[in-house]
Amino acid sequence: MENFDQKEAFRQALTGWFNAEKRDLPWRQTKDPYKIWVSEVMLQQTRVDTVIPYYERFIDAFPTIHDLANAPEDVLLKKWEGLGYYSRARNLQAGVREVVEQYNGIVPDNRPTISSLKGVGPYTAGAILSIAYGKPEHAVDGNVMRVLSRILLITEDIAKPKTRKIFEAAVTNLIDHEDPSSFNQGLMELGALICTPTSPKCLLCPVRDFCQAFHEGKERALPVKTKAKKTKEIQFLSLVIQNEQGKWLMEKRPKGGLLADMWQFPLVESLTDDVKNVYGIEKASLFLEFKHIFSHLTWNIKCMAAHSTKADDLSENCRWFSEEEMEELPLPVPMQKIKNEVMK
């Protein structure tokens, strides 16, 4: 698409379709860069339908950038509970605090500065700059790479990080300088609704006339993407322990790593005598088995119910909680599943 007239016709077809057919999403009702930032972080690795209620609750709880900057971490994690990838929430808050401390609460409007913020990568930077500030900046995610690989017949492997540069250059070349927000969102929307991974709806596509893959019958062969390595599997025993006062034993995860600082029913590899002594239990009974899949590993969890006569002398990361108190704890999804099963 080297011809100016062809590029302009492509832009008009894409932005015209987007403005006529776009989904009514809550973050599309604002140009506030903070709220757009929140939505873009939530949308990473999470479906739009799933994000909507989380976004609305989150903005209700933290309506301004200062509210989020000042929020205690446990409150932040509780509002994020269920979305997963909790490092996204922590990085978002860290980035927001930088904006409050260094830029008087005003999200930077240029790529070098906004990209220096914690957790803001090339895609998030481009999305905020184009949608909130109307800057002609590329915002390349998986949807955009899929769409452009077909339109421009790009055959490089999109699983390789270096390939992103090819697509960023393509967007920079094609982007509508008059309406970069609709252009970037149009590419994303096209990938979500029409130019889908396995069954692209080519007959409904507003830019089909410009699509090289469609004209060559290669739309289902693109994008080229090598398969990820098989995920690692880990076996865990989750101990659901109640004391004589009816409280439940919970342990706080370490400050770093997966699900950092969240609460869980104690996880062990097996129910050894040492484990029984540590938690003050004599016997335990199996009541639930399930697997939880993270992006890079799978937990196979067996859940055992037990009673403990041990009132104290527990490790510093363990505490007893009433059922009401547990409602305030930030729990990862597998622990929510166990809690819901226990407290039916």
Describe this structure in words.
By secondary structure, this protein is of the alpha+beta class. It has two domains: 4-215, Endonuclease III, domain 1; 232-342, Alpha-Beta Complex (Nucleoside Triphosphate Pyrophosphohydrolase), CATH 3.90.79. The protein is 44% helix and 14% strand. Strands 4-1-6-5 form a four-stranded mixed sheet, with helices on one face. Strands 3-2-7 form a three-stranded antiparallel sheet. A hairpin with a 3-residue loop joins strand 5 (284-293) and strand 6. The longest helix has 18 residues, at 4-21. It is elongated. The protein starts with a helix and ends with a helix. The mean pLDDT is 94. Residues 42-193 form the HhH-GPD domain. It catalyses: Hydrolyzes free adenine bases from 7,8-dihydro-8-oxoguanine:adenine mismatched double-stranded DNA, leaving an apurinic site.
